[in-house]
Amino acid sequence: ITISRLLLDGPNSPLYKALIDTNIGNSYAPSTGYNPYNREADFVIGLSGIKEDDAPKVEKIITEVLEKSVNEGFSKERIESILHQYELSQKSVTTNFGMQLASMNLVSRWLHGGDPVDLLRVNEMIERFRKDLESGPFLQEKIRHYLLDNPHKFTLLMTCL
Known about the structure:
By secondary structure, the protein is mainly alpha-helical. It has helices at about 1-10, 15-20, 55-70, 75-90, 95-110, 120-135, 140-150, and strands spanning about 25-30, 35, 40-45, 45-50. The strands form two sheets. A two-stranded antiparallel ribbon has the order 1-4. It has a two-stranded antiparallel ribbon with strand order 2-3. A hairpin with a 6-residue loop joins strand 2 (about 35) and strand 3 (about 40-45). The model has no long low-confidence stretch (mean pLDDT about 85).
């Protein structure tokens, strides 16, 4: 989730700057981002309002941004900001807190063979994540492995008739 937010969220994110600010697309498609709720998680970078001829250009830009993110990494301040936002979102108790836990996170994890209680250990997850960050280019290795070197990717172009 952190990598998705680092790459996509907000006008200062690298993919936003490369795809939205340059007017290649109008906005992100609704399915854009990391989705951990299926047996196989997926990461989608979708754009609305692109020209059909621009699809290869979009793929090239995405690859370039991912390569640049691997080579340069992310600022510590941005990572900490996103971690803080995540921590608050997980610990914030709202009127639908129980339903939210049951409907998306816990049930999905449980149905796909995971331990749903792991998701409640927010402090432990964040502490482990920080240790992984300290041990080296953790996020860059994940981007390389799961996004750049992953052979399971495709381009889907939807057009109106």
